[in-house]
Amino acid sequence: MIKFESSSHCLQFSGEDALISEGKKLVFQSGKYARFADGSAVASFGDTAVLVTAVSKAKSSPASFLPLTVDYRQKAAAAGRIPTNFLRRELGTSEREILTSRMIDRSLRPLFPDGYFYETQVVCNLLSVDGVNDPEVLSINAASAALAISDIPWNGPVAAVRVGFIDNEVVINPTRRELAHSQLNLVVSSTFPNLVVMLEASAENVYQQDFLKAIRTGVKECQTIAKAIEKLREDAGKPKREFTVLPSGSEELLSAVKLLSENRLRVILRDFNHDKISRDVAVATVRNDVMEKLRTSFPDTDPMIISESFNKFFKEFFRQLILDEEIRCDGRKLTDIRNISCGVDLYKPLHGSAIFQRGQTQVVCTVAFDSPESALKSDPVSILMGGLKAKNFFLHYEFPPYATNETGRVGSGGSAGRRELGHGALAEKGLRPVVPSDYPFTIRLTSEVLESNGSSSMASVCGGSLALMDAGVPILQPAAGVAVGLVSRVNPETKQIDDYRILTDLLGIEDYLGDMDFKLAGTKKGITALQADFKLPGVPLKIIMESVVQASDAKSHILDIMAQTIKQPRNDKKDIWPLSEKLEIEAHKRPKFVGIGGSNLKKLTAETGVQITSIDDLTFSIFAPNQSAMDEAKEMIEQFLKEEKEPELEFGAIYKARIVEMKETGVLVTFYPKMVPTLLHNSQLDVRKVAHPSALGLQVGDEISIKYFGRDPVSGRMRLSRKVLQSVASSVVKNLNGKPPSS
Description:
Helix content is 30%, strand content 27%. It is of the alpha+beta class. It has 5 domains: 227 residues, GHMP Kinase, N-terminal domain (Ribosomal Protein S5, domain 2, 2-Layer Sandwich), CATH 3.30.230; 75 residues, Polyribonucleotide nucleotidyltransferase, RNA-binding domain (Arc Repressor Mutant, subunit A, Orthogonal Bundle); 224 residues, GHMP Kinase, N-terminal domain (Ribosomal Protein S5, domain 2); 63 residues, K Homology domain, type 1 (Ribosomal Protein S8, Chain: A, domain 1, 2-Layer Sandwich), CATH 3.30.1370.10; 82 residues, CATH 2.40.50.140. Strand 7 and strand 8 form a beta hairpin. It holds the Pfam family KH_1. Its EC number is 2.7.7.8. Keywords: Cytoplasm, Nucleotidyltransferase, RNA-binding, Transferase.
C-alpha cells in the first residue's frame, strides 16, 4: 500500500509490507536543497537522510562512452562524530566509499540512453546517519530520484533494496544489528517491469533456492519504490533536455565495412587456435586495412566515424555468430569451461601459496600469517555505518599492466585503483565465509594476476582457496568462482529481449562485447558471493535465475578439478608456519611478567620477534613466527618470572614491612628482599583519615607493623592494613626482612 502526501515537491510513502518496519517511512523530497544542480533529491529512512545531486555538462565529451562519476562520501558530522585522523577532517576516499560509489554507478549507468556522452557527476552527501538504517542503498534511491526529476536524459527510475536472510526468512532493508545476524547481504537494483539492473551480494553459504528467493523478493519490493520515484518525477520533474548524438556512419559506409571485413572476421573468429593476443592482432590488422581503404573511398567522412562503424559491425557480427551457431570464438560450447590447471606449495618460505590457471587467466595467490594485533581495524564512522570493527582475514588483489600485454604505472603510491579494490573486495567476499572467525592468526591473502583474459577476480577465489588449504587454514569448505555472460538480441520496437545465450566462463572479449558480467562464487553447498553488472537497461528475472543455476553448475565442476590438486587443508605442518599459544599468569606475577612500562614485553619482541597480546586479566596470547622463536621466548619468560622462593605468609599474621616509596595514595612496602613492592593504601594507614602518608611522619626506609589478610581473588594483590593494629594490641610481630624484630 502506498500513501501520498503532497507538499511542495515533497513525496512520502509508507508500506504495510516487509519493506517498511516499525512504522518508518521512506521519504523523497526535492526543491529544498541544492537548487542550482540539474537535479537534487533527499531520501530519508528512519533518521538516516541522504542528499544526492546530479549535474551534467551541456557540451558533449569527445569520448565515445559516458563519462559518469559517482562520489559517495561518509561524513563524520552526519553520524555526530569527529574524524579520528590528525587533521580531524575528512581526507582521502576510503575503500568502503569507493566500493559504494561503484555500486551506485553500476545501478545508474545502464539506464542512460545510447549515444549520451556528456560528462555527468552524481554526488551523495550524507545529511544524517542514525547507525541503524543503511545510507548506502538509500543513496541509490536518492540518486535515482535526483536523475529522474532532472532534465538529464535518463531512462529511470531505478530502485534498490538490501535483502537479508535471517532464521530462514527473507528480510527487506534489515537494520545494522539485524544484518550482523543475517546469512545474506544482497543489494538488488531494479526497474520496471521487474527488470534487474544490478546485483551485489555476500552470503554465508546460502542454498541456491534461498538465494533465488531473495532475488525475486528484492525485485518485487523495488517496484514499490520505483513507483514512488516515478510519482515524484510526474509532480516535480523537469522536461528532459535534447542532446546531440555523435554522427554515425551512413548505410553506404556500413555496407562497405561489411563487404570488406565480414569474411576476414569470420575466418579469425572461427580459427580456434587463436589466443587473446593473436586474435586481437588479427582483428586490428583487418581494422587498419579496412580503414585505409575506406578513407580513400569516403574522403569526406571523419576517420573516427569510420572506426566506430567498423567497431559497431564487429560487435554485431561477433554476437550474431554466437546466437546463430552457439559456438564461441575459442571453439567452446556455451557451457564449456576453459582448461584448468593448478598447483600449491610454490615456494618454501611462503606460509601458503597456489597458482590457478584457467585458459589464459593466471593468478598466483600467497598467504601470510601474523598476530591478532595485525587485524585490519575500521574507523568509528565506518563501524557506525555498518562496517566490521576488525578483520582477521583480508584479500589484496593486484593487476599489473603486463597481465594484458600493456605498459603503465605499477601501483599508485601504495594504493590500489578503484577496479582493483572492487575485484579484491568481491574475491574476499567469496572466501570470507569459509575462513573460521576464531582463527588465532590474522590472515593476509594476496592475489596477483599474471595473465588476464577474463574473470580474474573469480580466479582469485579459486587460487585463494587453494592457497588457504596449502597454508593449513581449516576452511569450512573449498570455494570457487566463475563468471557467466550474456549475448542477446533485442527487438527494436518493443525493446524486449527476443533471443539470448548465456555463456559460461567468460572471455575478456565476450565481456567487452556482451551484455552481462555475472560473477558467482561459492562452495559445493551454496553461494558465498555474487556481483552482476548489465549493459542492458534491465534484464528479466528469468535470465537471472538461469544464470545463477548455470554458474552454480560450473562452480561445482571447477571445485572437482581443484580437488585433484588438494582436497582439504594440509595437516602436516610447515617449519615456517607461525605458532600461537595461550599463557596464564597469576595476577600477582603480572607486574614481573610485563615489566616496568611493558619493558619485558618490548624486549621479548625485539629479541625474538614474538608478540604478546593480553586476552583478559590473567590470560595472554603468544604469537611466534616459528618454533625456534617460541622456544626462545619461553626461556625469556621463565627468566622474567624466576624468583627466589617466596615465604608463605600467614593469614591474619602481623609482619614488619619496610617503606620503599611514598605515593599520594599510600606507601609501597616490602616484607622480604627482592619482593615486588605492594601498596598499603592511605585508608589502611591509620584510624584517622589520611590525605598523604607524610602526615603521619612516615619516610622511605621506615619499618612499620602490618597485618596480612591474604590476596584479592580477582586482582591477586595483597590485602594489608596498619589501621587495624591501632585499636587492638598485638603480641606476635613477624619480621621477614632478615633482621630481628624491633621492640
